[in-house]
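Teaching note: in complex prediction, the entire set of molecules is handled at once rather than each chain in isolation. The prompt given to students was simply: 'Predict the structure of this complex.' The entities are:
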Amino acid sequence: MLRFFTSDIRRNLIKILCLTVGFAVGFLLVAKVYFEKTYDSFFPDSDRIYYVSECFTINGEYEEYSATPGGIVPGLLAYVPQIETATRYTSLIGEGNIALDDERTFAIEGINMADTCFFDVFSTPILVGDPHQALAVTDQVFIPRSLADKIGGDPVGLRICVPEFSRDYKVTIAGIYEDFPLNSTIPNRIYLSLSSIGNFTYDGTRNWVGNDRYISFAKIARGTSPDDMKPYIETMLRENVDSETLDVFHFNINVSTPLVGSYTSRDGVRIMMWTLSLLAVIMILSASLNYLLIVIGQMGRRSKEMAIRKCYGTSNIRLFARVLCESAFYLIVSLLLAVLLIFCCSDLCTAILGYTPVQLLSVGHIWVIEVAICLVILVITGIIPAWIYCRTPVAAAFRRSPVNRRGWKLALLSIQFFASGLLLCLLVLIGRQYRLITDVNMGFEYENIGRVNLSGVPYNVRSTIVGELRRLGCVEGVSSSDHDYFFNGSGNNVWVDGRWEDHVNVTDLYYANADILDVMGMKLTQGQTFLENADSVTHQVIVEERFADVLAKLGVDTTDNIVGQHFYITGHDGPAEVTICGVIGNMRRGGFESDAIDKRAAVFFPASSVRDNLYVRFNHLTSAALAEAQTVIDGIGYTDPLYITPYRERMNILTEPVRRFGTSVMIVGVAILVIAMVGLVGYTSDEVIRRAKEIAIRKVTGTTTGQIVRIFCKDILIVALPSLAAGAAVAMIVGRKWISQYSDQVSLSPVYMLVCVLVILILLLCVVAANSLSIARSNPVVYLRNE
Amino acid sequence: MNIIIKNLEKIFRTDTVQTRALNNVSLSVADGEFVAIMGPSGCGKSTLLNILGLLDNPTSGSYTLDGEEVSTLGESGRTAWRKGRIGFIFQSFNLIEEMNIHDNIMLPLNNLSLSRSEKEQRVDEALRRMGIAHRSNHYPSQLSGGQQQRAAIARAIVARPGLILADEPTGNLDSVNGAEVMKLLNELHKEGATIVMVTHSHKDAVNAGRIINLFDGQIVETLNDRM
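The expected output is the structure of the full assembly:
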């Protein structure tokens, strides 16, 4: 029954292997693209959910912030009839742990504080409780089902605390919601009633201006356009916001950015989706074409078999069905193996794509797309060969000379060469870009730094930890700050001489110890660091060099030293006048993508107390040094575990997208290169057999071994060179698009592309030479005798 | 071209079988001589011709061509020797299907250091001489058997080799075309070429100055001055 498979088992196994790899990689890439493409689209009426953002003009520059003051959403609900419902939430804490009264702890994604309409806008099945009631009551939370499952039993009514925050402050679980899908902007966090905000921080839930920390959304009525709401919003603002804010800063509220498409329109996501789609198409196409290549290679023998069948009365339809069934067999076997491969490499897939294969392959209607891909592959691998077999005349099939379908084969090979060239060039570009961003001067050192997160740890314990760590011989210094320097800081406004209307937004890194510059290797370019115990004596600040531009915008003469300049800043218990005591080199915060990087000038304040981020500078950060420091920390005997980790790991978070993308391209690239090589070996073997007589004749007439190898190499070169060049050219285009999202970009030098093309060419020629050498060296008599 | 072979043996070995194709064959062919080799199928005619044409090495014995011992040459040495000095004519023509007649004839010249115009001139000359100039741009499959063999002869002589080896040159031709081919070989012989021809045909063999009969890998009879 499987004679068609066993009769040429080597080639048939190669067919299955190539299809398996193509399916596995292609399906995952397609699933990943679909996952990203359908971001946020699963909410009922998702097309009617819009972001609420604020915008204003300062110093003639228009600015738009995605966060709003707390009073905007209640205002929209009261003034704008087209808005069905609206909500706002704000983050309380990020990833961490919660503890129950029975001391069990659970990891959580974080805690947000949300108003009562949150689940009206972001509809998801409510499994237990009434969110309207629960989120209206202080200190009550709704938890996701995944957390409820981990807690077990009926968690409603249980009390939880966040040890990092405070063990004394407890909230009560009042309900459970079904988790949002993973491809959602809305995280599966614990949602605490917004009315609890006063227990943690300033309550700005009714502010019309300032304290703009709320992420706000509105669901608008069917058939409404964002423009319809503008007059109502204007009325709302006129009646509630002071005229200076409206007339001088042109403060306004936008309800015009739809939730759906907002994520996918980001540069990084768009380019990633585009590139992964390209990789998926190349992968699936290469595997299918390689299958076709092998089928064409087998045609000489199989055409004869089909001709004999035709002689004995088999109709074309039956032949067609027969070939199609064979292809379906290969397809099904490959599909099963691909599923097996995906699950065997599940960890690798998760590391590269960020989600498990199950998560990716279970999103929405992805199966419809995957089935459609299978059908397309069936057309390529089944219908095309069947069509060729059926239209080959019986007489032609019986001719002795092997079938020459060189044009077909070379065309198929050229696509694979093109893909190989494209991916290798892209891979080199990604590698160079990765090296560039990991070598970028961050404005501070991180290689020999360890970091301990001290959130929630009492100040006396923090001081003990610092004292103990400073005693270690392997430790050079210890300091702390409120800020984790790799990431963006929050913004505050600065101005001078009472000219608030000209204020500029800067990054406020809040408080740090005086020795932070030494420990973090921040270069002081002007002035000095804070005075010891500065909390109590002065309002000194250290600023970045680019703060001079801020001062220049504010009308301050910055031609010389800016040390000693005074300015006002918000966010420190009311407007505070401060003086610049030192200037450091600019730091890089927020990552490497142009739209993520925080380019605002930073300012930070002195603190004598130990802050949340503890930085430990080692002589040499080795695992032994880290272990020694960890032992000291453990020896303090604090109730909750505290860990010291290399600060470099924070850098890895920022470089992870590039690394992941590079790994994806590498895997697809290697797979395609292997497929191309397999195809090339098959092609050369077929050619060697087909041209055996020709080579023998050439040898008889005096052609040398080297010349014969050159003939085969030249044939491939003619196809490979333009294909690889085209691949390199497309890599340039794709690469240019990809690196455009980064603030630092490697040069797109054609030299690198040329080297890549040459490397692949050499590889191809080696394969061809190795395959053709045997016939080039063989005795021509052997092949002429057969004539 | 002078050919002298002494005590030549050729043994083909497989895992289980050992076949002695040539057994102690000694033979000399003088420069400008036309020799026909005859014998039943499997007697070793083609094997001898392949060894004479440096397509194959003998298992033992001596083979000198123009005074040079060539029996021990390696593949590259034999290739270098053949280049421009030996022309081959096969029963099945062995033209390359993908090349037109012009390019097929040009094949031996591609390995010689001649100018492009010299090569073209020689190809044109060979085409005209064989009477197939009008078929220059055609492909082998578009030619009759006789025309194909004439193209093969053109290819064999285009490099002006000193030795022409013909393996049953008329075997695939009708009598008219066969006679035409033999007429061409006779002309080449008269112009001074050394020709060794393997044939089953007595009619063709009588064109040669000497007929050597092989049987079971041994020379059993030599008939001189048949012309």
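Point out the following to students. The mean pLDDT of chain B is 88. The interface with chain A takes residues 46, 50, 53, 55-56, 75-76, 79-80, 82-84, 88, 90, 92, 94-98, 107-108, 110-112, 155, 159 of chain B (CB under 8 Å).
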